[in-house]
Write a structure and sequence with these properties.
The chain is mostly helical and 152 residues long. The chain has five helices and no strands.
Amino acid sequence: MATTKELSDFLENVERRAFKQTAYAVRDDHAALDIVQDSMMKLAEKYGDKPAIELPMLFQRILQNTMRDFWRRQKVRNLWTTLLSSFGSNEDGEDRDPLDTIDVEDDSDEPSAQLERSQTIKLIESALEKLPARQREAFVLRYWEEMDVAET
């Protein structure tokens, strides 16, 4: 079992290398610092009682998994940013909800507008199916049932 001193020494020795490795991988120093700190916290919280000889392998696995989680979140965030950026911005530069721009009831005669609207709705519905149940419920209550944040 690793003592607190052994764990502390290990984390101190691996800190700089882990940061450089992560910074090269994610190409963002701030995100790399967060990833390394999260990985260190996970190691200390969940595996601090393991033998000191196992700490390097455990830390590398945790670091790699944390980087993968970062990339997954970035991929989803970039997907939504790209999809929702097509709705344009408010003339005043104010933040607005892109979902408010979709008029499901619009009976426009423009076939291209109808096609675009139906494709957008299909994208939203398929993304909703992928969400966990609680997030899906919150989304539906907030946007389709038009409840405010407190009610949701």
